[in-house]
């Protein structure tokens, strides 16, 4: 937390934490061509309720460059970091404006690789709202994570635990997609359905049908426009994944007006 602050960290599920590093801290030689200050943001992977209890927050950082490598190799317990605050609007609050008549029938949480980090607190928030009897909570949640190999998937155990806490009347399905062979099988991850292949409209439609039944309409008829018609979505991943996600969602009939995105690059 910033020096001089008190109390628990204050952030919303899905937000990021911003940091500003100096060349000296990172061990960059004087006179190099790199910027004197290096700014980085990482999604907070804990939930605000946890932070209220512990006074801390958690980030899940993939080694992917100078700063993240420094975090993995050099950061020590108790060391102060140049924290600049929380930010971002990729949160479940984006669903709050929908009244009962316009509430989406379901929510898709789609992540490419380490893009899974905001989905952990977002899913926990949706489950907590449902358990509390909240009205702005979809009854169906399909979370898909795409990785090259299953052993590269982060936060699978934590997400499985959250899904098991979903109250009666709320259905949560977790699907782990692997795009290359090798490593652990996606079918070996407890609480997750395993699948192979990239993000496509067919994959989304198939797993929505498998998880929630062939007919997804309120009156026993399939929604006009596809099995995911009217669904909202939260999508996080690298640029290529984001482009593929928009095409897949459109093909599956999801509401692109309710597509909320958080992209990142290394």
What do these coordinates show?
There is one protein chain. This protein is an alpha/beta fold and 266 residues long. Helix content is 25%, strand content 21%. The chain is built from seven helices and nine strands, in the order βαβααββαβαββαβαβ. The chain has a six-stranded parallel beta sheet with strand order 7-6-5-4-8-9, with helices on both faces. β8 (232-237), α7 (239-252) and β9 form a beta-alpha-beta unit. The longest helix has 14 residues, at 239-252. It is globular. The model is unreliable at 214-223 (pLDDT under 50).
Question: Which features characterize this protein?
Answer:
single chain; 266 residues; alpha/beta; Rossmann fold; 2 domains; six-stranded parallel beta sheet; three-stranded antiparallel beta sheet; globular
């Amino acid at each position: 937390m910033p020096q001089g602050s008190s109390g628990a960290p204050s952030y919303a599920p899905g937000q990021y934490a911003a940091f500003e590093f100096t060349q000296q801290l990172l061990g960059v030689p004087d006179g190099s061509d790199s910027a004197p200050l290096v700014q980085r943001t990482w999604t907070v992977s804990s939930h605000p309720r946890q932070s209220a209890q512990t006074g801390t927050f958690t980030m899940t950082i993939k080694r992917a460059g100078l700063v993240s490598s420094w975090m993995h190799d050099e950061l020590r317990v108790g060391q102060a970091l140049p924290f600049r605050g929380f930010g971002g609007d990729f949160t479940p609050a984006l669903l709050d404006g929908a009244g009962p008549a316009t509430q989406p029938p379901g929510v898709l949480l789609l992540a490419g690789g380490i893009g899974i980090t905001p989905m952990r607190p977002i899913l926990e928030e949706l489950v907590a709202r449902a358990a509390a009897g909240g009205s702005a909570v979809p009854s169906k949640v399909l979370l898909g994570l795409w990785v090259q190999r299953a052993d590269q998937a982060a936060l699978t155990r934590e997400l499985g635990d959250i899904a098991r806490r979903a109250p009666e009347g709320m259905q949560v399905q977790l699907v782990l997609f692997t795009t290359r062979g090798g490593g652990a099988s996606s079918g070996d991850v407890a609480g997750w359905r395993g699948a192979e292949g990239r993000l496509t409209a067919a994959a989304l439609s198939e797993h929505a049908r498998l998880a929630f039944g062939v007919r997804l309409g309120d009156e026993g008829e399939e929604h006009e426009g596809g099995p995911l018609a009217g669904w909202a979505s939260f999508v996080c991943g690298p640029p290529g994944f984001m482009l593929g996600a928009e095409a897949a969602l459109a093909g599956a009939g999801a509401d692109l007006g309710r597509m909320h995105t958080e992209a990142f690059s290394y």
